[in-house]
């Protein structure tokens, strides 16, 4: 996406090399609160079998990875990536095994990861573009606007800059564009104006600062009614997407990374959670020269799953099979004229 470059204040992501140690200050844990979304559907569409090599590009709490391991068995191989070192710490013990590689890296670095492991193209790739419940529960990085914490919003705290730093200098016009483009919020200009006015009195350093700026009342904000949506939801989404360059990462994956790392007839499955992501996946899978779409329309969570796991309500699963590259032109058989 071009907007990050236009703003200029958001540093390019340069995550730690594959296999690098986790971020300083990360807190290892052994239990995850995360429930994998559309697990049954993901396993079915990936057409898993013993012996396959599978990439889980967004390890998170490890729920999908654990189920994949059960299907591919000890003769298979799992490469699990996550750009969040805390998720790597959390999930590594849950999927440990001689046929498992857990690596701190974004899925856009998959070609380098495979090269470092001396592996060629793989059989399956899964990208779960949602964030993990354990990240939401992390009180140190500002993912939840219901808890007062530093307004960081980075998955990888070793790269880029926190949202609070961005909000020190971004103009009202730039902020309007970020919220409109990445949050799809029709009140983007109003929110931007309030945030700029707030920072003239005090810095936007915490989640509650941002909530107070948007709502005009002390945080935490409490809505009324069962379907009341927090007015800061789309603003937090927009800032998180921008700070982490999430759409740039996805664009890179869909336009070269995944098909270059998949074997012919390999399968790519993508779980998206908002329309920006889903449109990109849908558009990429429309390329008839590269992909054979496996689902006539995206799969969504059943009413029962949505009741048990509210995070699944916006999830959409798309999948496609990589088409073999067309053969190149045959060499010319024309002989030179006989003199």
Keywords:
37% helix; alpha/beta; 339 residues; single chain
Description:
The chain is α/β, with parallel strands linked by helices and 339 residues long. The protein is 37% helix and 13% strand. The chain has helices at residues 3-7, 39-46, 63-72, 85-91, 110-116, 133-137, 163-169, 172-183, 188-199, 207-215, 233-244, 246-261, 275-285, 303-308, and strands at 53-56, 77-82, 100-104, 122-128, 262-272, 291-293, 316-322. A seven-stranded mixed beta sheet has the order 3-2-1-4-5-7-6, sandwiched between helices. Helix 8 (172-183) packs across helix 9 (188-199) and helix 9 packs across helix 10.
Could you say which structural class the secondary elements and strand pairing correspond to?
A: alpha/beta
Strand order of the largest sheet: 3-2-1-4-5-7-6
* Rg result: 22 Å
Number of helices: 14
Approximate strand percentage:
5-15%
Low-pLDDT stretches are: 1-30, 330-339
Tell me about the largest β-sheet.
7 strands, mixed
What's the rounded overall pLDDT mean?
84
Portion of residues within helices: 25-40%
- Write down how many β-strands occur, each being a DSSP E stretch of 2 or more residues: 7
């Amino acid at each position: 996406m071009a907007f990050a470059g236009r703003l200029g204040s958001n540093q390019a992501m340069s995550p730690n090399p594959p296999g690098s140690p986790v971020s300083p200050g990360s807190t290892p844990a052994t239990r995850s609160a995360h429930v994998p979304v559309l697990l049954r559907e993901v396993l079915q569409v990936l057409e898993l079998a013993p012996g396959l090599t599978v990439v889980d590009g967004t390890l998170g709490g490890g729920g999908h990875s654990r189920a994949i391991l059960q299907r591919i068995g000890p003769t298979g191989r799992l490469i699990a990536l996550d750009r969040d070192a805390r998720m790597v710490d959390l999930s590594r013990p849950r999927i440990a095994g001689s046929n498992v590689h857990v690596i701190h890296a974004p899925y856009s670095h998959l070609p380098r990861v495979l090269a470092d492991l001396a592996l060629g193209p793989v059989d399956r790739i899964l990208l779960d573009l949602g964030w993990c419940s354990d990240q939401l529960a992390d009180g140190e990085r500002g993912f939840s606007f219901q808890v007062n914490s530093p307004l960081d919003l980075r998955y990888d705290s070793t790269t880029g800059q926190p949202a609070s730093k961005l909000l020190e200098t971004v103009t009202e016009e730039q902020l309007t564009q970020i919220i409109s483009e990445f949050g799809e919020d029709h009140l983007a200009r109003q929110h931007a104006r309030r945030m700029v006015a707030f920072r003239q009195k005090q810095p936007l350093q915490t989640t509650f600062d941002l909530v107070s700026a948007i709502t005009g009342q002390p945080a935490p904000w409490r809505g009324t009614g069962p379907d009341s949506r927090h007015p800061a939801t789309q603003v937090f989404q927009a800032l998180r997407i921008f700070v982490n360059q999430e759409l740039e990462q996805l664009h890179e994956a869909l336009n070269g990374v995944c098909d270059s790392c998949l074997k012919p007839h390999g399968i790519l499955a993508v779980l998206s959670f908002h329309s920006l992501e889903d449109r990109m996946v849908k558009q990429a899978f429309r390329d008839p020269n590269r992909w054979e779409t496996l689902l006539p329309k995206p799969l969504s969570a059943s009413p029962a799953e949505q009741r048990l796991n509210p995070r699944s309500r916006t999830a959409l699963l798309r999948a496609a099979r990589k088409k073999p590259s067309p053969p190149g032109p045959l060499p010319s058989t024309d002989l030179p004229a006989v003199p």
